[in-house]
Amino acid sequence: FANATHEVINVTLHTTLAATTKLVVPTPAKPILPVQTGVQAQQEEQSSGMTIFFSLLVLAICIILVHLLIKYRLHFLPESVAVVSLGILMGAFIKIIEAQKLANWKEEEMFRPNMFFLLLLPPIIFESGYSLHKGNFFQNIGSITLFSVFGTAISAFIVGGGIYFLGQADVIYKLNMTDSFAFGSLISAVDPVATIAIFNALNVDPVLNMLVFGESILNDAVSIVLTNTAEGLTRENMSDVSGWQTFLQALGYFLKMFFGSAALGTLTGLISAVISFWNEMEWNGMEWNHIDLRKTPSLEFGMMIIFAYLPYGLAEGISLSGIMAILFSGIVMSHYTHHNLSPVTQILMQQTLRTVAFMCETCVFAFLGLSIFSFPHKFEMSFVIWCIVLVLFGRAVNIFPLSYLLNFFRDHKITPKMMFIMWFSGLRGAIPYALSLHLGLEPIEKRQLIGTTTIIIVLFTILLLGGGTMPLIRLIDIEDSKARKRNKKDINLSKTEKMGNTIESEHLSELTEEEYEAQYIKRQDLKGFMWFDAKYLNPFFTRRLTQEDLHNGRIQMKTLTNKWYEEVRQGPSGSEDDEQELL
Predict the structure, then answer these.
(1) Do 221 and 125 touch, CB atoms closer than 8 A?
(2) Where found, per UniProt (predicted)?
(3) Cα dist. 311→267, 319, 483, 569 in Å?
(4) To 5 degrees, how large is the angle CA 277–CA 281–CA 282?
């Protein structure tokens, strides 16, 4: 009996020690990626160098095209449509060269999704959030959120569910549930670049403009989060999990990604506002003026660029959505941080962000056109036709019911004409194409089918729907009366020309304490978040200027102008009349 008891105690001790050991064993370290050296490193450098050269060459040709559009006043043609068309022509030219065995550019002309998500997309999303007209955006924040979050989810479920059930009925190519939902999510990302240009040229209702523009910005981030959610379900073994548990798991993952990323971006933007504001204040008797970056605009500008990209890297590093984080960071930094900067840095931020975003957008649309000849296609007519039908139907179910629902709570109603324009402006852009290449679908023919179908839908919406937006607006008579009287040749759809000739007055409107109180605090028409922001948040996170601050800002700008003029005078001398006019 004693021996038996001793054995039982030994077994118990071994079991306890084993369980304890499992609990205290540290998690394995992340594997270190192998570093290429020697010949492999040289080959990688050569390949990367040729890719960079090819990308810059394509971008330079596109910039020349945009310049020619502006020079010869071809303002009726949206730049995105022109760049995509140029990309198609360049792809055909490269294909002919490769067929003649004169060169081999297959690796360089391939669109790399990692480069898109790490380098090209963040500046585009940040600039979109940074350049929002905050008044119209926050006044319509409820409607924009409903369209971009719930509307995108509705569209994704309709497209994904339709593809799945049609595949089960052997009408189209068969996809499983998670792959169908992933495709429905990625194809729900709208990018109405051409439509927004037409809206600005025709001076349509600013509420309609903001609803379409604001929805497209948030919609991109929501679509990426939904696609990542579907990918996460695909990677996990869900065979033993019920449908209800799968739905709850997907919902939890989406809410974590959405609200976690939005909170991270908002927090980063507020920290940048605090740094740019409180560095001039006194705290516990200690003056912080010695770290005032406003006196050195180059350092201040560098700090703002760091904060512009910081939330993206942090969010991606902790498995959140970098796009969602950088979007909310851009909105917050524009609303609070920007007004704390020196006038020089404000102008530098606007023009730099616009230029970088323009170059990234141009590069993306050019490679989208190139992909027609560089991507290994798998084309199925029935799959493409049904996907286009489902995309249009999903957009309709998104816009019309939600608009009628919102009209019960809106003072400025969404008219049926506005609803139809919002449905028609659901163009697809480079984000669906990049997401389609980023999906880890097996077998390879499934990935090729999804990529080919995505390219066709994107080109269909850009060329057909984007090209038909202006005639449709003219037909249903929704434009401004002044724009209606203008000739077609006088309408300017060039986003680049307007971008270079204007500075957002909202971003340069620095108000003194008395002016801010008269313009915002005492207004009786502010409601909800607008009232809370004007009463508490804006006074806390933004600096109210004194007359001395405004005077110093004018001196700083005048000094820079005088320096520029002195350098100009050192060059070839002009006439005395020209000098007098400059003075």
Answers:
(1) yes
(2) Golgi apparatus membrane
(3) 9, 12, 41, 44
(4) 155
Greatest pairwise CA separation for the chain in angstroms: 118
Give the position of tokens 């990309």: 87
Q: Report how far residue 342's alpha carbon sits from residue 454's, in angstroms, rounded to the nearest whole number.
A: 44
CB 327 within 8 A of CB 126: yes
pLDDT in tens, 140-155: 888 888 888 899 999 9
In sequence order, the β-bridge partners of residue 190 are: 428
DSSP string computed for 41-95: HHHHHHHHHHHHHHHHHHHHHHHHHHHHHHHTT-TTS-HHHHHHHHHHHHHHHHH
Radius of gyration for the alpha carbons in the chain, expressed in angstroms and rounded = 28
Q: What are the respective helix, strand and coil percentages of the chain, to the nearest 5?
A: 75, 0, 20
Please give the backbone phi and psi of residue 283, each rounded to the nearest 5 degrees, phi first.
-135, 120
Tokens of 191: 């990018």
Whether the CB-CB separation of 338 and 349 falls below 8 Å is answered with yes
C-alpha angle 260-263-268 in degrees, rounded to nearest 5: 125
pTM: 0.78
pLDDT tens string 88-127: 898 888 888 888 877 777 776 777 778 888 888 888 888 8
pLDDT tens-digit readout, 455-493:
899 888 887 887 777 777 777 766 554 544 555 555 555
Contact 447, 439 (CB under 8 A): yes
Q: Which two tokens stand for residue 184?
A: 């429905």
Residue 206 main-chain phi, psi, to 5 deg? -60, -30
Q: Say whether 261 sits in a helix, a strand or coil.
A: helix
User: Tokens standing for 320?
Assistant: 């959140």
Q: pLDDT tens-digit profile of 549-583?
A: 666 666 766 776 777 667 666 655 555 555 555 55
How far is it, in rounded angstroms, from Cα 347 to Cα 351? 6
Instruction: Tell me the C-alpha distance between 247 and 227, whole Å.
Output: 14
**Most confident by average pLDDT, 39-43, 75-79, 451-455:** 451-455
What structural domains does the chain harbor?
A: 113-282+289-501 (1.20.1530)
Other beta carbons within 10 angstroms of residue 67's beta carbon come to 12
Tell me which residue of 220, 320, 213 sits closest to 266, measured CA to CA: 320
Q: Are strands 282-283 and 286-287 parallel, antiparallel or unpaired?
A: antiparallel
Continuous segment of H or E residues that includes residue 286: strand 286-287
**Residue 155 pLDDT:** 92
449 alpha-carbon distance from chain centroid: 26
Structure tokens at 350: 């606007």
Residue type, 413: K
How buried is residue 332: exposed, middle or buried, by Cβ count under 10 Å (0-12/13-18/19+)? buried
pLDDT tens-digit map of 242-272: 667 777 887 888 888 888 999 999 999 999 8
